[in-house]
């Protein structure tokens, strides 16, 4: 029986929320509270821990609700996210990391409505960035198309993405050889076979801080992203050419910022 058939039979579809942790006690409380406050009743929370030695595991142990803990998962963030996917039993999978939290109590309910209304295989919205204690207004969402994403125009913010679990069997999971651009690689595979539905509202709050992978090693991250996008250039060669121009401009700016002052 497919997920759609089950939903038609009257069962509310379930969400599997995967949270990767490693000494996350300083921020995890907001993550846990935002999931616990969701008005959508069918939720399982999967924690993939990399060997925390602070209060993280105690916080997870005290967390009520349907949960599962995978301990001492090594091998990097891509492997941790994949382990969470493999452990998931819900109809839809989302990754909400331990320094992020949902932007409202109705996020899962709103996403479920969009899945049901448009019969799509993935849904995403925008994220709001929390930096230095202040929420930064979200960027305007541009319409998604495979070409616009391949060109680097449209964005797909990972913390606000929800995917029908069955799609991972079709397109694969995160590439565990990647450190920075594993999400972009997955969206390029997923976008080739399934157009998403979008929600023009913040679904998740993302903390931008010194420890964020996306905030450090920016040059290495851009270089890896280039190599990932190059894998798929045959799917949209003109779009890849446009991306190359954007890449060159961004790299010049990053290298100028990284250059020591004279």
UniProtKB/TrEMBL annotation:
Keywords: Transferase. CDD domains: GT_2_WfgS_like (cd06433). This is Glycosyltransferase. It holds the Pfam family Glycos_transf_2. InterPro entries: Glyco_trans_2-like, Glycosyltransf_2, Nucleotide-diphossugar_trans. It comes from Massilia forsythiae. One of its GO terms (molecular function) is transferase activity. The keyword S-adenosyl-L-methionine does not apply. It comes from the Bacteria. Residues 16-142 form the Glycosyltransferase 2-like domain.
């Amino acid at each position: 029986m497919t997920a759609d058939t089950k939903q038609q039979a009257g069962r509310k579809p379930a969400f599997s929320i995967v949270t990767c942790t490693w000494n996350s006690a300083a921020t995890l409380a907001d993550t846990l509270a935002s999931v616990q406050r969701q008005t959508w009743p069918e939720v399982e929370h999967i924690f993939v821990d990399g060997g925390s030695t602070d209060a993280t595991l105690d916080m997870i142990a005290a967390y009520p609700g349907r949960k599962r803990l995978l301990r001492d998962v090594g091998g990097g963030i891509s492997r941790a996210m994949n382990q969470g996917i493999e452990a998931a039993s819900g109809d839809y999978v989302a990754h909400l990391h331990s320094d992020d939290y949902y932007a409202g109590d109705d996020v899962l309910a709103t996403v479920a409505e969009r899945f049901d209304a448009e019969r799509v295989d993935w849904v995403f919205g925008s994220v709001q960035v929390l930096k230095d204690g202040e929420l930064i207004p979200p960027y305007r969402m541009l319409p998604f198309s495979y070409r616009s994403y391949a060109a680097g125009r449209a964005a797909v913010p990972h913390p606000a993405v929800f995917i029908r679990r069955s799609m991972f069997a079709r397109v694969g999971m995160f590439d565990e050889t990647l450190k920075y651009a594993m999400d972009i690689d997955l969206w390029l595979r997923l976008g080739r076979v399934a157009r998403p539905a979008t929600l023009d509202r913040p679904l998740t709050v993302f903390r931008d801080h010194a420890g964020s992978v996306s905030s450090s090693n920016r040059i290495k991250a851009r270089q890896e992203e280039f190599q990932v996008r190059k894998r798929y250039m045959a799917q949209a060669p003109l779009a890849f050419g446009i991306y190359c121009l954007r890449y060159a401009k961004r790299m010049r700016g990053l290298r100028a910022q990284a250059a020591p002052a004279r």
